[in-house]
Structures are given as C-alpha cells and as structure tokens.
Amino acid sequence: MTTIPARNTQFGQDVYTFIRDAVAPKVVDTVLRDNVLFQILFAKGGEFDGKDASVTLKVRKNTEGGSFQGFDTLSTNPVQTTEKATFEPRFYSKPIALAGTELTVSMTKNTVIKLAIESAESATQDFLDDLGNAIYGDGTGNSGKDITGMSAAIDTAVTSYGGLVKGNFLDASGGVRNGLSLIGGNTLNLTNSVKLTLDHIKNMITLCTTGNYYPQLAFVDPLGFDYIEKMMPAMQVANPTPSVSTEQARWGTYPLQALVAQAGYTSIRIKNTIFVSDEKCPVGKIFFVNLDTWKLDTLTPYDTTRIPVSTDLIVGQYDKNLKNRIGFGITDYMSPVNQYAQIAHIIFAGNLYCVNPARNGLIKGINYSL
Length: 370
Prior knowledge:
Blueprint: H1 10-33, H2 36-43, E1 53-58, E2 82-87, E3 90-99, H3 100-105, H4 109-134, H5 141-144, H6 150-154, E4 160-161, E5 164-165, E6 186-189, H7 198-207, E7 217-220, H8 222-231, E8 237-238, E9 250-251, E10 254-255, H9 256-263, E11 267-270, E12 273-277, E13 286-289, E14 294-298, E15 305-306, H10 318-322, E16 328-330, E17 341-354, E18 361-364
Parallel strand pairs: 6-18, 7-12
Antiparallel strand pairs: 1-2, 3-17, 4-5, 7-13, 8-11, 9-10, 11-12, 13-18, 14-17, 15-16, 16-17
C-alpha cells in the first residue's frame, strides 16, 4: 500500500529538505526581485525589539529659551516637543500544499519534488501580490492586519498614523508646509480631472525637500512612467549602466545609480529624484520616497526554519545586506486533521514605518487619458 511521505521517513525528510533549502529560498528571492520597493526596504531594514516598534516624532518647536545677556532670567519651563508612534508586527503566510491524492500516485521522490515546485510557484505569485500591494497600502486591508504601508504615512486622506491623529500636529512655521501635519506626508489629489504637469512633480519634490534631504526615488506604475517620459526632453531620459557612478545620490550605503542599473530599470531623473516604474504601484499614483526615513523591521517567525535569501537572482549591492536578513521562515510539513494533504507555510513577519513622513509625498488621481 502506498503511503503519504512523512518527515519521519527518509523519503519524506529528503523532500522536505529540498523544499526548505532550495524551493523556499527561490520563492523569497522571486518575491524580492519582482517587488522593487519592497526589496529596497527589506535590504536596509532592521529587527523588531520587543512586541512593537516605538518611533519618536518631532511634533512641535520648543519656544522657550532664546538669546540672553548678563543676569537675565533663563526659562525653566518644560516643553514636550515629541510624541511616540507605535507599530506592531504584521504576519503573512502562503501554503505549499501537496494533496494526498497526488502524493499517492507519485511513486518517486522526483515526482513529489515536482509537485512541490509547482505549488511553490503558485504561492510565489500570490506572495508577490500580497506584499507588493501592501507596501503601498494604508494598513487597513484585511481588517487592519496588513502592513502599515506608505499610504498610511503619506496620504493626507488617512487621518492617523502610529496611533496619533495627524490633525493634532500641524506645521505653523509659515513655510512651504504651513498648515500640513508634522506627522503626515504631502499629498496632491488631481481628482482624475486635472492634467499632470512637470510643475506638479517639481512642486511635490520641493515640498518633500529640506536642504540636502530629498526624496531619492519616485515610484510610479508602468503607464504613469510612460506618461511622464513623454513630458521629458529626450536628453533627460536615461538608461544608466552599472559603470555609471558620477552622481552619488544614495540609499543606505549604496549608490542609487547602481540600484537602478542593476535592477534593469530605465530611469527618469527630475531634479534629484529618480523615477522608477513598479508594476505593484497603484495606477494613477506617484510615491515620492525618502529612503532614509523608512524602516521595514522584521522578526523570525515562531516555530519556523529561517529562509535565507540566496541572492542567486539578486545581484550587486543587495548581496551584502540581504544575506543576513530575517523575516521569512518555513514551517514543517503538517497533515491537517480534516484534509488528506501535507501542507507547509512560508511565513513573513514584519512591518513598515516612517520616522519622518513630511519628507515624502504622493500625487494621486492622475488621469493618463488627459
């Protein structure tokens, strides 16, 4: 009688080891490779210390103190200039499932492995969609279980962030961000009725910039990328090669030019911001991202085997940062009590948060037919 391979047999152990050491890392590599923004943030992220991440945000100026002379009395009045925003980890899973009926007729190790690879390929595509969409979202999906994505921090239509109400902390400096939230981003809504112009884009970059602190990247869907490209003089559209290193705009510790070149994306530069096409970016939106302000912290999922990022599919500056990153794990294969199957789960654990939303921006409601 043919039985389902189990982990306590050599046949089952060999199959599981192959899935754990070869199939699962390929799933993670593909998820990272095909999610441009997620890959960058994952590579430069940290680890959760405790059950949540606490971020100190500057929300008001200390108006006490100032110039003095001689025996002038100095102020001793305390002023609370910061507030704490908190972010809890989020969890995602994708099963690699093998039906008992298929295992029954799979008499060799190779046929079982083929089934596992097919299941993993399907899980990969689903994982790509889930994480790629969530990174741009506002964290309200699936009853608030999704990653606290970029929209939560940047979009002014989202009224709170990290447990703080954005409207309670408004900029009163009289500058370009006067009246905007100190713990929120910069949003321009064209409401699908106003044509996007280069002035809109330049003004948004200005809103997000202070001194040499600016959005290094802007992410846009492929249709939007083509739309912007048509606005540009031909000489301003660049396809950098790995040998190009004259401009030292940087994310983390690696040249931004190398990022765009090695990922294989044609880029457009406006002011100091490089525009990158990302198919996971929501249609009709441009996200202006200061990479120095974002953290994608992760932790090792409980009762899983860590999935290393093999980096075979990821070249260049990603190698150094990704090899030691945690966040992805795979469970043992288990038999559900009410299903004739063997199922393992690839788990991701982590969350995204911003330490300075005001240095990021969003243009939405873009109508490409105008």
